[in-house]
Amino acid sequence: MPGTARHDQEMSTKARKRLSQTTDVLERLRLQCLAKGSAGIKGLGRIFNILDTDNSKTLDFNEFLRGLQHYALMINKEEAREIFQAFDKDCSGTIDFDEFLVTLRPPMSNARKEIIMQAFQKLNKNGSGVITIEDLRGLYNAKYHPKYLNGDWTEEQVFKAFLDNFDSPYDKDGKVTTEEFMNYYAGVSASIDTDVYFIVMMKNAWKL
Ligand SMILES: [Ca+2]
Ligand SMILES: [Ca+2]
Ligand SMILES: [Ca+2]
């Protein structure tokens, strides 16, 4: 599985170093997430949940402000208001998980996006536009998974666990969209310095 513990640790170390040099608040918030190893869709989902104290599945301004303070981002209310608006793309007055993810997702070069899309297309065998268990049969070998080998899981359960890595915590339906796939790899990508290495890793992982 691409995105190893070693990668996460490197990412975290680098993010902490860059934190001391950055004053831009949005970038600092992003680096705080990276430093905690929470760049991907799951990690950001966890952070969103923590900030959403009333469990409304959206963040209002007060929850957001408390969140910024929790991450030790000392800014005044005016600045916080500005950043809040940068997140709130549809100007609804609240931030939903998609808005949160898209704003905090570490940016990726076009070369990286292209190779991610190639992997998606390969996995999306039947061309339906979303990856499901059906697509994985014959493409992803579940039989080497440790839990399959020791008899804990069926092939079906291995496939489900695989899809679960990509599935958004707020749209968990066993189907993986291009956006969810991209969000997952934005996390992996943040731990890898060069495009060349990222592309090699993707090619090896997905036999592209
Ligand atoms: Ca809320
Ligand atoms: Ca909104
Ligand atoms: Ca989904």
Task: State the low-pLDDT regions, or none.
Answer: none
Structural class: mainly alpha
Q: Determine the mean pLDDT.
A: 87
What is the CA-based Rg, rounded?
18 Å
Q: Looking at the structure, what is the overall shape?
A: globular
Please, what is the oligomeric state? single chain
Spatial separation of the terminal alpha carbons: 15 Å
Please give the share of residues in helix: 55-70%
How much of the sequence is in beta strands?
Answer: under 5%
**How do the strands line up in the largest sheet?**
1-2
Q: How many separate helices? A: 12
Give a quick account of the main beta sheet: strands, pairing sense, barrel closure. Answer: 2 strands, antiparallel
Secondary structure tally: strands = 2
Distinct small molecules: calcium ion
The topology string of helices and strands comes to: HHHEHHEHHHHHHH
GO molecular function, one term: calcium ion binding
InterPro entries: Ca-bind, EF-hand-dom_pair, EF_Hand_1_Ca_BS, EF_hand_dom
Domain EF-hand: 39-74, 75-110, 111-146
Protein name: Calcyphosine like
